[in-house]
Design brief:
By secondary structure, the chain is an alpha/beta fold. A 7-stranded mixed sheet has the order 1-7-6-2-5-3-4, sandwiched between helices. Strand 6 and strand 7 form a beta hairpin.
């Protein structure tokens, strides 16, 4: 599913980022532009407002809309390895590749099939500034905003993640940090997800989403796509190792698992050169084949 426009510019930004070997760079266009003070304020206000009756009512409505949308979007989505979630006892950090605004619904669909009722999603604070129905969902689904403010992280983000994990819930964190539209390859990770897992003695539910091109066109430039979510082996912290050691080892193991899943799905070795086929569904793929 394609949300937003100007994908040509986004692909140009991806190409430039790959050339610069900056794989966690923001490439999307049209995101709300906020100062750091505004970003912190919107994140703090969100965390403070979640206990109000108005927010709770909106949360119920937003999650109902989200569930309905997830079922529709993922009517053709296949989940492989669902039984591996039975190895998880208690809370966990979910990680996956980040390539579309709707890829959260893929993870949500999988965990719901496994019997979980909710999935908390760590998301950039600028998403809370979006307008319209997307803005409503961002503000009122189970979003945990993140921002580059150390005080906010210590006072709100870390305690919230700890609370969710201790209560046996799942928290989705994208270790690639930024979304790259329809980009197939796993990108080098940031360590945050694994640091929170190690600090809270929680496992990683490692996932990789394979994107399959369909013959039908969705726009003039893009084919429709469908998804296969691969649930990989869960990754557990080693109680004999430090938080730092565990976070690094868990991160490296997760990347190797996603790399192997990519190579198996697309039958090609992972490299970090740009090819048109790296962008799923892009009609330019046929021109270069």
């Amino acid at each position: 599913m394609i949300i937003g426009s100007d994908k040509g510019r986004v692909i140009e930004n991806i190409q430039a980022a790959v050339k610069a070997k900056d794989f966690n760079r923001k490439v999307e266009t049209g995101d709300p532009e906020l100062t750091q003070q505004q970003k912190t304020a919107i994140a703090v206000n969100h965390m403070k407002n979640r206990d109000t009756p108005e927010y709770r009512l909106c949360n119920i409505c937003a999650r109902a809309i989200e569930d309905t949308a997830a079922r529709f979007i993922n009517k053709d989505t296949k989940v492989v390895g669902l039984k591996k979630l039975s190895e998880i006892d208690g809370g966990a950090i979910v990680t996956s590749n980040h390539f579309n605004p709707i890829d959260t619904t893929i993870a949500l669909t999988a965990v719901k099939k496994a019997g979980y009722k909710r999935l908390y999603i760590v998301s950039q604070e600028t998403n809370l500034a979006m307008k319209g129905w997307i803005g409503f969902l961002m503000k009122h689904t189970d979003i945990i905003p993140i921002t580059d403010d150390t005080r906010y992280v210590k006072k709100y983000l870390e305690p919230e993640i700890k609370s969710r994990l201790e209560s046996g819930q799942l928290v989705l964190i994208y270790p690639e940090q930024e979304m790259w539209f329809n980009y197939r390859k796993p990108r080098p990770f940031k360590r945050g997800a694994y640091l929170y897992a190690a600090k809270n003695n929680a496992p990683i539910i490692s996932c990789f989403t394979e994107i399959v091109d369909m013959p039908q066109m969705e726009t003039e430039e893009f084919h429709r796509t469908k998804y296969i979510l691969h649930i990989l082996d869960p990754i557990f912290p080693n109680p004999e190792k430090s938080v730092r050691e565990n976070s690094i080892e868990m991160m490296n193991k997760d990347f190797l698992q996603k790399k192997a899943a990519y190579e198996k799905a697309y039958k090609r070795k992972l490299d970090f050169n740009f090819e048109s086929s790296d962008i799923a569904g892009w009609s330019a793929n046929s021109k270069h084949s």
